[in-house]
Amino acid sequence: MAETRKKPQPAVKKKIPQRRCVGCQGTFDKRDLLRVVRSPDGAISLDFSGKKSGRGAYLCFDEACFKKAKKSGILARSLECEISPEIYDALEHEIRAAKTNE
């Protein structure tokens, strides 16, 4: 019986998910954005893993973008709820910390 050889398959490049920042409307790799999530019970939190369940909105690590999103209220509209000042403070802290780590 004749043996048939399979041709080697080229390596498939893994697709990197893209998300849009709610502040500047720029498109970035998902891992380069900060996710804010509203859980099904209504709690707002920061999602560093990107896997929490709930409605999410993404922000880039640009301080001007954060200020624009806060002033216009786009983050609250995206999550369809009110955002507490503590969440905005945590977001600002994370963005500043990322800026100093660069």
Shape: elongated
Q: Which runs of at least 5 residues are low in confidence (pLDDT < 50)?
A: none
Mean pLDDT: 90
Please identify which CATH superfamily we are dealing with. YlxR-like
In brief, what are we looking at here?
The protein is of the alpha+beta class. The chain contains three helices and five strands, in the order βββββααα.
Structure description:
The chain has helices at residues 63-72, 74-79, 85-101; strands at 18-20, 27-29, 34-38, 44-47, 55-59. Helices cover 32% and strands 20% of the residues. The protein has three helices and five strands, in the order βββββααα. It has a single domain, classed as YlxR-like (Hypothetical Cytosolic Protein, Chain: A, 2-Layer Sandwich), CATH 3.30.1230.10. A three-stranded antiparallel sheet has the order 4-3-5. Strands 1-2 form a two-stranded antiparallel ribbon.
